[in-house]
DNA sequence: GACCATATAGACCGGTCGATCTACTGGTCA
DNA sequence: TGACCAGTAGATCGACCGGTCTATATGGTC
């Protein structure tokens, strides 16, 4: 059996770290993670080799989930590429409004992790994946300059997440959506 | 004499902390700050009451300097409000290209500081100051909706700084400038 | 020359960090 | 039954954390 009926220590540690590192930042202590996950200290080092390995793995699975969330938001919007792109900003608006929204996990990691931390590679790859997702839709729209336009959309997304993190209660994604509309063109 | 010919411990500590907290994050150790500033341990606690006080003061003087930099970039652009606003993005492009650019200091602080840290008040006030600066120019332009437009410009600035931090070598401020042009209107 | 505020140097405090280690537990399977 | 193994529990390690302390040096003012 590779599937478990109950989450094992590895999975408990991953979800606990995903939650705590987002809520309290990368600097959370190992003890807090172990306590939250109800996992023995040793298991962490068996499964992940250390805190850095755990953080990196958290970023990796989060990136997979978040990319899936982008795809899902676009899939739910139908077949029109323009509507699919705008739907991303509608979805983001909801994300930012969630009471425990704390900004972009990957930007926070980029700013807080040591320059040689293996997590950086994960966050950069995630960023490229989202970029390519956007660019593909723009190409489907026959956008004249899909690559720089995707870059602009990414900038709008980052801006909305940053403003949302620093000014709770506002609707930066709605403001970004208006600009995205112009980027997409028509 | 209130002015010194040579910077005193307080000033040395401030500049050292300004540099190190930006380069290595808020999490730098007190020892590293003291060593960099060539200042006795006790002086830190005499002048700032502790690390939190020093960090807060660093944010305060940085905010003053950065607001002055915004004003200077606009002043150098002349009298036309439209040109003054676009000049902000030209200036930002240069800032982002600097080899030691590491993203927005205030966003990093917002993400890394404990929720009850006094530094938060400083960063929020700084954000409002920039916002008001932009809004004033938009009013001078008789922009129909100066407040939400200022919010959008702020979003573009944050987005450019975020992309600049995560994708060195690109020119996000140039991409943001194109969108800013549309926000400002004609 | 005496005085005092300011700064320096650095030992020292309790606490926490990430990491390693031993000893024990419960279930699996030959 | 007994070997095996992943997981648990927790003591312990050295390093570092922010903060307090004493002792000493310096430089300006009466």
Please outline what is shown here.
The structure is a homodimer of 186-residue chains. With 186 residues, the first copy, chain A, is mostly helical.
What do these coordinates show?
- The structure is a homodimer of 186-residue chains.
- Chain A has 186 residues and is mainly alpha-helical.
- The first copy, chain A, has a domain of 129 residues: Tetracycline Repressor, domain 2 (Orthogonal Bundle), CATH 1.10.357.10.
- In chain A, 75% of the residues lie in helices and 0% in strands.
- Chain A contains 9 helices and no strands.
- Chain A is elongated, with a radius of gyration of 18 Å.
- The model of chain A has no long low-confidence stretch (mean pLDDT 94).
- Chains A and B meet through helix 6, helix 7, helix 8 and helix 9 of A and helix 6, helix 7, helix 8 and helix 9 of B.
- Chain A binds a DNA duplex (30 and 30 nucleotides) through helix 3.
